């Protein structure tokens, strides 16, 4: 689980989804918007719809994996952004390493990576 200070509030998700810039890969996609406070920590939320994985157990597994990847690489992520991570249907069968590679690629593509 991501610490509270790294999580997007539920009320902020619609704003990020409508105003955010999109970045896509085969397994996940990102919606990114600049935070109102540029020196604030970059915050994340992970969304896995029932279309991606019909069972709650499967959705939670994907969410845990994606959150762990974000937490593990948080030291390489720039400050001052709000990010929504959206899983695609292929994410349910993907290996952890493939998910991590896609997330890191998208963060670099969005200009959020210090790596």
TrEMBL record:
The lineage of its organism: Bacteria, Candidatus Vogeliibacteriota. Belongs to the RnpA family. Transmembrane segments: none annotated. GO terms for molecular function: 3'-tRNA processing endoribonuclease activity; ribonuclease P activity; tRNA binding. It catalyses: Endonucleolytic cleavage of RNA, removing 5'-extranucleotides from tRNA precursor. PANTHER family: RIBONUCLEASE P PROTEIN COMPONENT (PTHR33992:SF1). This is Ribonuclease P protein component. The keyword Glycoprotein does not apply. GO terms for biological process: tRNA 5'-leader removal. InterPro entries: Ribosomal_Su5_D2-typ_SF (IPR020568), Ribsml_uS5_D2-typ_fold_subgr (IPR014721), RNase_P (IPR000100). The keyword Cell cycle does not apply. Keywords: Endonuclease, Hydrolase, Nuclease, RNA-binding, tRNA processing. RNaseP catalyzes the removal of the 5'-leader sequence from pre-tRNA to produce the mature 5'-terminus. It can also cleave other RNA substrates such as 4.5S RNA. The protein component plays an auxiliary but essential role in vivo by binding to the 5'-leader sequence and broadening the substrate specificity of the ribozyme. It comes from Candidatus Vogelbacteria bacterium RIFOXYD1_FULL_44_32. The gene is rnpA. Consists of a catalytic RNA component (M1 or rnpB) and a protein subunit. GO terms for cellular component: ribonuclease P complex.
């Amino acid at each position: 689980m991501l610490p509270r200070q790294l999580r997007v509030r539920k009320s902020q998700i619609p704003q990020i989804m409508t105003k955010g810039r999109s970045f896509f890969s085969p397994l996940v996609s990102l919606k990114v918007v600049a935070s109102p406070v540029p020196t604030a920590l970059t915050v994340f939320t992970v969304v896995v719809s029932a279309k991606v994985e019909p069972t709650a157990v499967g959705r939670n597994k994907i969410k845990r994996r994606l959150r762990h990847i974000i937490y593990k690489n948080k030291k390489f992520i720039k400050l001052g952004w709000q990010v929504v991570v959206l899983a695609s249907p292929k994410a349910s069968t993907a290996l952890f390493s493939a998910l991590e590679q896609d997330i890191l690629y998208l963060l670099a593509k969005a200009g959020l990576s210090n790596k």
